[in-house]
Amino acid sequence: MLRPISMPAIRTVLIIASLSVLAACGSRQERPKADLAASRVTTIGVNSYLWRATLDTLSFMPLLQTDSNGGVIVTDWYANPTAPNERMKLTVSILDQDLRADALRVAASRQVSQAGQWVDAPVQAATVQKLEEIILSKARDLRRSAIGG
To answer: In Å, how far are 10, 30, 46, 67, 142 from 96, measured between CA atoms?
Structure first.
């Protein structure tokens, strides 16, 4: 679970950020330009483009757990209104700070309703692969947008 940030902690961060900006103003050296679209630009423990793309992709599902430092997103069971006798649960792991295909792992569980009981059912491999492709495409689009301005 994410814990709320206290006001004193926010105030401290703002003061430190202000002081560092003021200290930089007095410097006559030209500072290198930051590459805002670099794959490692992040204030979290994993690639920020993959993280945001995953949250966007799974926004229709209820979330049980999000850990941006560990790179894990776990959804609760979701039943599509057009198929109420079937439900899915996902766990997405972001494994690296780089925007790479092997930095993303999706695990899915599926259940079907039989005689009022939820019974585990197989998930097609294509389903997981498609989800990974969608997340990676969105992450690349987010990175391209950041490069473009």
So the answer is: 28, 32, 6, 14, 17
